[in-house]
Description:
Layout: H1 4-9, E1 20-21, E2 37-40, E3 55-62, E4 65-72, E5 78-85, H2 88-97
Antiparallel strand pairs: 1-5, 2-3, 3-4, 4-5
Amino acid sequence: MKTFKSHINELKMEIPGSKGWVLGTKDEPKKLKDKDIIWRSKVHHWDNDVRSDNTRLIIVKNKGKFDMWAKSDKSGKIVFHFGTKPTLDAAKEFASIRKWQEKK
């Protein structure tokens, strides 16, 4: 049974400058495999845009561009799309501005 808090965390929101929530929408990427992920962050305990505990930013190469997603560390599902950057360096810069630290 879902708690009220987890239900609120999964509601769709409009956030300026971001693609937004994808949980349960057609925008959710196909099943991502670990080999598709070229960069992943440490787990964040809270993110102001994603508004969810225990998420990590992942960067996936897609047709020569780099998609940035928030992935729930608990469920393994993609919950938020931060958009696409033309280069890996631009995507990593976005991550550092947002204070996502790379998992090593």
